[in-house]
Amino acid sequence: MKFESLVKPAVLTQPVYEPGKPIEEVARELGLKPDGIIKLASNENPFGPSPKALAAAQHALLHGELYPDGGCFALRQKLAAVRGLGADQFIVGNGSNEIIELLGHALLGPGDEVVMAAPAFVVYKLVTLVFGAKAIEIPLTHFRHDLKQLAAAITPRTKLVYVCSPNNPTGTANTEPDLLAFARALPDHVVGVFDEAYAEYDPAAPDLRPLIREGRKVVCLRTFSKIYGLAALRVGYGYATADIIALLNRMRQPFNVNAIAQAAAVAALDDTEFTAKCVRENRAGMAQLEQGFTARKLEWVPSVANFILVKVGDGARLFDALQRRGVIVRPMKSYGMPEWLRITVGTPAQNERLLAELDAVRSS
Ligand SMILES: Cc1ncc(COP(=O)(O)O)c(C=O)c1O
C-alpha cells in the first residue's frame, strides 16, 4: 500500500508554501557568487539584528547544552513591561507562524470556516486547510482589507477571522477606530486574529490592547522576524486575555522557542535606538523606491510596512530576469497579481541596485 493512500485526504490537496529562496540556493542554481546577491523577497531587515541582540544570542550559545525555558519567562516579563500587559497575556512561538498553527490546533476542524482577506498572508489559508476547515476569502478593496465585507462573510460556522494590518503583500493598513469597531462587533462565537507583523514600521499603527483589557476574544500577533532582524532565529508572539493564552499554551511543544532566540528577543526589545534607526531608514528607502518607480512611470501601492508592491507587467519574467542578475524579489502570481512584484525596502545601495537592474531587465 502506498504511503499516499494512508494520509488524510487534506494532505493530498494541501497547497505548498513558496518561501523567498535563500541566497545560497539562488547562487547554486544560477552559478552566481552569494556575495553578489541581494534578497529583497521576504521582508527581512536589511540592517540585520541589533548589535545588542547579537551579543545576547552569542552569550546564550555558551549554554547550548541546556534545554530552553519552555515558558519563555524572561521574554514574557520583558514583553509585559514594554507593552503594558500581564506576562500571562503573552504566548511566544517559533515565529508568529506557530501561533497561527496553534490557533488551528485549538479551534479548527472539518466544517469550520475561517474568514480572511485575499490576498493576505498565505499561512492563514494553509493552516485552515491543514485542519480540514474552509477558507472564506474576501477580496481587498483598493488594496486594503474590506472590514465590512469580512464581517458580512461571518456565518454560524465561522471560528476565526484574520485581519492583517499592515497587510502582506500590499503594505496597506486599516485605522484604529475601524479595527476596534470591527473587533467589538464580532459575534460571540468568533475569534478575531489581528496580525501586526509590520506594526513597528507604522507610526500610526493601531493600539488594539483595549480589546484585550475589555476581555474580548481576540488574539494579536507580532514577530521578531521583521524590524528586530531575527528571522533566522524564529521567534514571534501572540497577546490576548490570560484565559485564551492558557488554552493556546496547551497546544504547543514543550520547548518550542530556542534559548538563543529568547535571549536575542529580550535584548532586541531593549534596543529602541536600533529600531528607531530602522524605522527612519525604512522610510527613506521607501521614498527612494517610490520616487524611482514614479520616475519610471510604474504604478505602486502606498505602503506603511517595509515592502512595496510595484506593477511591472510580466511579473514572472521580470522576477526571473532579476534573479539571474542576483536580485531576489517576490513574484505575485500566486497571490493572484501576476503583473506585480513585491519588493522589500533594502539599504540605500540595495534600493539603487534594484532600480538599476529593473531598468536593465525591462529593456531586455
Ligand atoms: C503578515 C505576516 N504575518 C506573520 C509572518 C510570519 O512571521 P514569523 O517569521 O514570525 O513566523 C509574516 C512573515 O512574512 C507575515 O508577513
Number of domains: 2
Put simply, the count of helices is: 14
What would the principal axes of the Cα set say about the shape?
globular
Identify the CATH architecture of the largest domain: 3-Layer(aba) Sandwich
Helix proportion range: 25-40%
CATH C-level class of the largest domain is Alpha Beta
Indicate the proportion of strand residues: 5-15%
Distance, first to last CA: 51 Å
> Compute the gyration radius: what is it?
21 Å
User: What small ligands are held by the chains?
Assistant: pyridoxal-5'-phosphate
Q: What about the largest sheet? A: 7 strands, mixed
CATH overall fold name of the largest domain: Aspartate Aminotransferase, domain 2
What spatial order of strands do you see in the largest sheet?
A: 2-8-7-6-5-3-4
What does this structure look like?
This protein is α/β, with parallel strands linked by helices and 364 residues long. It has helices at residues 9-13, 23-30, 51-61, 73-83, 96-107, 123-130, 147-152, 176-184, 209-213, 242-250, 259-270, 272-295, 315-324, 348-362, and strands at residues 38-39, 90-93, 113-118, 134-139, 158-164, 191-195, 218-223, 236-239, 307-311, 327-328, 330-331, 340-344. The protein folds into two domains: 8-39 and 273-362, Aspartate Aminotransferase, domain 1 (Alpha-Beta Complex), CATH 3.90.1150; 51-270, 3-Layer(aba) Sandwich (Aspartate Aminotransferase, domain 2), CATH 3.40.640. It is 40% helix and 15% strand. The strands form three sheets. A seven-stranded mixed sheet has the order 2-8-7-6-5-3-4, with helices on both faces. A three-stranded antiparallel sheet has the order 9-12-11, with helices on one face. The longest helix has 24 residues, at 272-295. The protein starts with 8 loop residues before the first helix and ends with a helix. 46% of the residues are buried. The model has no long low-confidence stretch (mean pLDDT 96). It binds pyridoxal-5'-phosphate.
